[in-house]
């Protein structure tokens, strides 16, 4: 290619290619510097970190966990108060002040093992007290 055959389109493409080449050469120099610092055992220069940034100490909220068995006692009390009609999970969660998802998980895992909690419909539960017989 001679200078007489050069038009504006080919000149633009030459400029773009040259800029791209310069950027790649700069990137290679950075990689070589990192490699040499690793080989020599020097610390890497502080660069841009990847990943999620650390939380600021002031922004971190301390969340207190409830005591063991608290959710069970709340669910039992709410279902006992509801009587034979029982409660659906959204109403139950509102009543005891816990997320619906947490109530669903508790009922499907722990609640399933308890014979006094009966499922009477989709997402609908009631408490069936143990019958006390008069033994005489």
Question: Can you characterise this structure?
Answer:
With 136 residues, this protein is mainly alpha-helical. Among the domains are: 10-40; 70-127, Arc Repressor Mutant, subunit A (Orthogonal Bundle), CATH 1.10.10. Helix content is 47%, strand content 8%. The chain has four helices and three strands, in the order H-H-E-H-H-E-E. The protein has a three-stranded antiparallel β-sheet. A hairpin with a 2-residue loop joins strand 2 (117-121) and strand 3. Helix 3 (89-96) packs across helix 4. The relative contact order is 0.08. The model has no long low-confidence stretch (mean pLDDT 83).
Secondary structure tally, helices: 4
How would you sum up the global shape?
Answer: elongated
Structural class: mainly alpha
How much of the residues is beta strand, in percent? 5-15%
Distance between the termini: 114 Å
Low-pLDDT runs of 5+ residues are none
Which CATH-level-2 architecture of one domain? Orthogonal Bundle
Radius of gyration (Å): 34 Å
Question: Whole-number average pLDDT?
Answer: 83
- Look up the CATH topology of one domain: Arc Repressor Mutant, subunit A
What is the share of helical residues?
40-55%
Q: Sheet with the most strands?
A: 3 strands, antiparallel
């Amino acid at each position: 290619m001679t200078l007489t055959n050069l038009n504006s389109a080919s000149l633009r493409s030459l400029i773009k290619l040259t800029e791209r080449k310069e950027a790649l050469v700069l990137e290679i120099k950075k990689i070589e510097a990192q490699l040499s610092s690793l080989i020599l055992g020097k610390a890497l220069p502080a660069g841009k970190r990847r990943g999620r940034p650390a939380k600021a100490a002031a922004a971190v909220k301390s969340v207190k966990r409830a005591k063991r068995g608290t959710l069970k006692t709340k669910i039992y009390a709410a279902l006992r108060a509801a009587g034979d009609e029982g409660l659906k999970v959204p109403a139950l969660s509102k009543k005891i002040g816990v997320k619906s998802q947490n109530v669903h998980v508790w009922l499907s895992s722990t609640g399933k093992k308890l014979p006094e909690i009966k499922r009477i419909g989709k997402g609908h539960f009631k408490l069936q007290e143990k019958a006390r017989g008069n033994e005489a």
